[in-house]
Every structure is written in structure tokens, then in C-alpha cells.
Amino acid sequence: MLPATFLRAKTIHSIVPLLLCAMVALSLPAQTNVAPSSSSASVLKSADMANLMPATVFFRGQVASVQARNSGGVKLPDGMFVLSALVDTSGYSTAVQQKYQGYFITEVALDINGQTLKPGAYGVGFIEANQFLVMDLGAHDLFTVGSKHDADLKRAMPLQVLDDAAPNRYRLYINRNYVVFSRAPGQ
Questions:
Q1: Pairing of strands 157-163, 169-175
Q2: Angle at 83 between CA 162 and CA 80, to 5 degrees
Q3: How distant, in Å, are the alpha carbons of 17, 32, 65, 70 from that of 50?
Q4: Other beta carbons within 10 Å of 102
Q5: Cβ contact 122:103 at 8 Å
Q6: Residue 33 is assigned to a structural domain of this protein
């Protein structure tokens, strides 16, 4: 049988290297799985939106399913997002269905054809007379701006976001109709 003093000494000697390894490991910079932020914005396709857009959204007192395959957005250089998706409006009144086609989420203030939109969640839609309507979650109209029809668009989709010809500007399309948006000045 070994004396107790010898056992304590042996235990201390086996623990010291472990403590030193732990101290070295803790002093090293932490490695993260977060990708470094890009210096430019990136347009998001529906496949990129899987973990960003909720499956259901609240609008005008109801919850509606999001059409994930018809979604898109932009990840801005600072990591902030602008997201949009078509929604299933079958449970809404005809009056709401005529103007509510998509859900729009922005983490930054935007300029949409000269109108400023604060960060938040909104209902949006293209309505007659080439107009784009933005509504709050209670279906109250916030503003309407002119929209354009892009007959030259190669591949029209139910909803998509594409780069505009001007830098740092983007087009939100529903079919061939679109509005241009960008980060609001000073934001």
C-alpha cells in the first residue's frame, strides 16, 4: 500500500499538466462558425431564405402560411436583412386579398420610390394602375408608390428580388411588376 502523501503528490502531478492545457486553451482566441461579414450586399434566393423567413405570419388578425418557394431578400453589408415572401391569402376577405400579396420584413429604414419605410413587418401588394401598396399589420394603408412593369425580364417568377442597374438598389418583383428599394439615406 502506498502512503497517502505519495498518492496526493502523484495526483497533483497528473492534474498540473491538465490545468496548464486548460489555461492555454482558454487563452486562445475563440473560433466561431460565423462567416465574416461581406463588404457588399448579397441578394437572397428562396433557398437562402429557409432559416430566415417564418413559416407563418400574422396580418389583419389572422395567421397565413408563407410560400417559401416564392421568397427573396437582401443581406446588407452590415448583416442586416430585407426579406419578402408571397403568402397564402385564401382565408382573407376579398377586399384584403386584392391588395395583400406578400409579407415584407426590413431590419433597416428603406427608401421605396421616394417613400421611407421604417424597420418592421408589413403587408405589400401590387394593385391596379401600376401602384405598389405598403400596409401595416392591421391592413391600414401606409403609402402607395408607382411601380413598373418589366416586359424584358427573362424569367418572371411569382416573387423575386434582383439587383437594380444602380448600385446598392434592388428590385422587388411580383411576376413582372417591380419597385426599387434601397437603404434610406443616412441609415
A1: antiparallel
A2: 100
A3: 46, 22, 14, 11
A4: 23
A5: yes
A6: no
183 backbone dihedrals φ, ψ, rounded to 5°: -65, 135
Give the domain extent around 165.
Answer: 42-183
In this structure, are residues 51 and 114 in contact, taking their beta carbons and an 8 Å threshold? no
Query: Residue 35 domain-assigned?
Result: no
pLDDT at 142 over 90: yes
Structural domain count, the chain = 1
**C-alpha gyration radius of the chain:** 26
Tens of pLDDT, residue by residue over 92-118, are 999 999 999 999 999 999 999 999 999
Q: Is-above-0.90 flag for pTM?
A: no
Q: What is the DSSP annotation of the chain?
A: ---HHHHHHHHHHHHHHHHHHHHHHHHSPPP--PPPPPSS-EEE-GGGGTTTS-SEEEETTEEEEEEEEEEEEEE-TTS-EEEEEEE--TTS-HHHHTT--EEEEESS-EEETTEEE-SEEEEEEEETTTEEEEE-TT--EEEEEE-EE-TT-SS-EEEEEEE-SSTTEEEEEEETEEEEEEEPTT-
